[in-house]
Amino acid sequence: MIVFFVLIASFLGGGYLVFKKNIFLSLQHSRSFKKLWDEQRTADVLDMGERILASDPLNRVALAFSGFAAYMSGRYHPDEEKSSRYIIKAIQYLRRLRTIDSLAYTAEVEYVLGKSYYAIGRQQESLYHLKEAYRKGIRVVDIYEYLAVLYEHFQDYEAATTILTEANEYVKNKELYYPILARIYMKQKKYSDAREVLTFLIRSSKKARVVEESKVYMAQLLYEEDKITQVLALLKDLIKEYPKNDTLRILLGDVFSRQGEKERARYEWREAVRLNPFNAAAVKRLTE
C-alpha cells in the first residue's frame, strides 16, 4: 500500500497537475490534495475531489485525485459491493481525465486504470492499460505479477515468461512471482524448468504458504509427467503434512481415476468438497 502512495505522490508532485502548460490549475487545491494524500487520508481526498467535481466536473486536479483515492477506497474495502462501486468510480474519473486531456496518458494513470479493471474482472481492458503503464516506465513489483497472470489468462505463455524473466532482473524477492512462473512452465510442458523453479521455492522460501503451494505444484508436475508411482508416494506424504489442503485430495482422486479406480477417486473428491465446499473443481468431477 505504501508503495502505491509513494508512486502516485511522485506523479502528483511531478508538475503535471500544478504547472501544466497553458492551463490554469488551482495551486491551493493541488497543495491541499497533496497534503491529504501524503497523510494517506483517502476518504478525505475523495470527499474533497467530489465536492469540487460537483461544480467543476472537468477539473483535472480533482479528477486525478478522486480517481486514485476511489481506487484505494475500493481496493481495501471489506464489503464487495461497495468495493466495486468505488472501483467503478475510479475508472470513470480517470477515463474522464484521459478524455479531456491527452497529457493525462501518464504511466501512473494507466497503472491505476489497469488495476481497477482487473479488480472488476475486465481482463482485456486491464491488460491494455497495464501494458501501457509498463511501456511508459512503471516498474513496481506487482505490475509483473498482474501482467503475467493476464498473459496466462489469454494463453500467451511466451509473453508471460518474458515479463517474468524481466522481473528476475528487477525483483529481488523471487517468491513473489516464481509460483506463477512454475505454473506457466507447466502449461508450456517445460517440466524441467518448472521443477527447477519449484525446487528453489521449496528449499529457500521462508513462507509456509509458498512452500505448501510449491509442493502441491510439484505433485501436479509428476502427475502431468505420468509418473504415477512417484506422485502417489508424494501425495501420501503431503496429505499427512497438509491434511486440510483440498487440492491434494483432488489430485489424488485424479490419479485414482487415471488408474481406473473410480470409487477411490470419488472418495477423494468428496473429501476435497468436505474440506472446501466451494471447490468448484471437485464438485464438477463428482457431477460428471
Quick summary:
This protein is mainly alpha-helical.
> What is the name of the CATH architecture of the domain at 226-288?
Alpha Horseshoe
Report the structural category. Answer: mainly alpha
Shape: elongated
Give a short account of the largest sheet. none
CATH homology superfamily of the domain at 226-288: Tetratricopeptide repeat domain
Low-confidence stretches: 13-25
CATH class of the domain at 226-288: Mainly Alpha
In the CATH hierarchy, the third-tier topology of the domain at 226-288 is known as Serine Threonine Protein Phosphatase 5, Tetratricopeptide repeat
H-E string: HHHHHHHHHHHHHHHH
Arithmetic mean of pLDDT: 89
Beta fraction of the residues?
under 5%
Helical percent range?
A: over 70%
Whole-Å distance between the termini?
A: 43 Å
